[in-house]
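Saturday, quiet lab. Running sequence design on the structure tokens for the scaffold JK sent over.
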């Protein structure tokens, strides 16, 4: 990805995903929700690979925006500061789920 020249396009795409997320929450029928989910997946597949990998566990619009802020921070921390809580939230979503612990949350 070529730095800032893609950012406006990526930000617009994230805005579209956010609208789709809102529409999914308000879908009048399960069938409409499925169609919106499919559209969301197709749109999200247009992101560069680093976005897909970094937001795999936090792929919503908020997670994508967080990744942009974290990425900008690491590229230039002086000009793009972030707060520790935001960095912690980013890394918490990067940690793989412990399947043994997950059984507590998803009993059979």
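Result came back. Writing it out in full:
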């Amino acid at each position: 990805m070529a730095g800032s020249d893609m950012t406006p396009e990526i930000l617009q795409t994230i805005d579209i995903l956010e609208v789709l997320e809102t529409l999914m929450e308000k879908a009048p029928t399960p069938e409409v929700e499925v169609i919106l989910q499919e559209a969301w997946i197709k749109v999200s597949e247009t992101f560069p690979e680093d976005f897909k990998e970094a937001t795999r566990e936090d792929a919503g619009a908020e997670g994508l925006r967080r990744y942009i802020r974290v990425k900008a921070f690491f590229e230039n921390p002086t000009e793009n500061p972030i707060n520790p809580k935001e960095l912690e939230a980013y890394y918490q979503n990067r940690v793989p789920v412990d399947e043994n612990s997950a059984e507590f949350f998803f009993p059979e």
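Notes for JK: The radius of gyration is 16 Å. Residues 66 and 90 are 7 Å apart (CA to CA). Ask whether to fix the surface positions before the next round.
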